[in-house]
Write a structure and sequence with these properties.
The model has no long low-confidence stretch (mean pLDDT 83). The chain has two domains: 202 residues, no CATH class; 73 residues, Alpha-Beta Plaits (2-Layer Sandwich). It is α+β, with helices and mostly antiparallel strands. The longest helix has 31 residues. It is elongated, with a radius of gyration of 25 Å.
Length: 293
Amino acid sequence: MDRFIRKKSLAKDILLIIIGTTILAIAINVFFDNDKVQLVTGGVTGLAIVIKSLTTGILPDGIPLWFTNLAVNIPLFILAIMLKGKDFGYKSLFATFYLSFALWYTEAFQAVTENLLLSSLYGGILAGVGLGLVFMAHSTTGGTDLAGSLLQRLMKHFTIAQLMFALDAVIIALGYFVFGVEKAMYAIIAVYLTAKLVDAMLEGIHFSKAAFIISDHYEQIADQLLVQLDRGITGLKGEGMFTHSEKEVLFCVVSKKQIVNLKEIVATIDPKAFVIVADVREVLGEGFKEYNL
């Protein structure tokens, strides 16, 4: 049974990688590597766009993106396997090869716009969705994240994220010198959108509200919330640091639509109750999103 579950999980991850890298390749070929646009958004694919432009006079269409992606990533993976062992990053290796394959078979896709703003917006969104799916499969597409992890072994006083940011900044700077400041500025918009989409996909988009309620009528409030909202309530022990008296703090997570009802219930029972409402990015468990193991 465990073996079947592992195989099913691996098949799901591979499917996510295939879909994610295809979406990412479309974003790059359709919106970033456009003859009128050419947005360098960091990473190996951003470097590939620069190299393609610089070699267009040498080769008819320059060095293709898929070739540069392989040429840069294969040595990185060989080095990673030498340093971290042969079991390192099989899914990431597959994702890297498949991204190159996807970049090749989506080359024929026509650009839908030559507008820099539209290209940065839609390209950034598509790239974020694609990368988000790859990361959800516990994989990467190699590139600067792999290079950053390798460099961190030599530069231990820096984090991997800092090294990745530095590498991406260098590549974006190359885009600035090759394509100009305006395109570099739009590329930064695309990078920002990509990062936000990746965060939303990994952290969840099922926003809810968490309420902390402090009241002397906590039992009555808890009873009404249980009945009217059908949500679980947790009682937390607290202490007022001014009076040093014990307090019961009610903790409740509700949907965005229910937060108004919650505040009305509390205000009806105890208008002097102290209520704190906080945003919750994702909730797993009964009554909300089920665990996906």
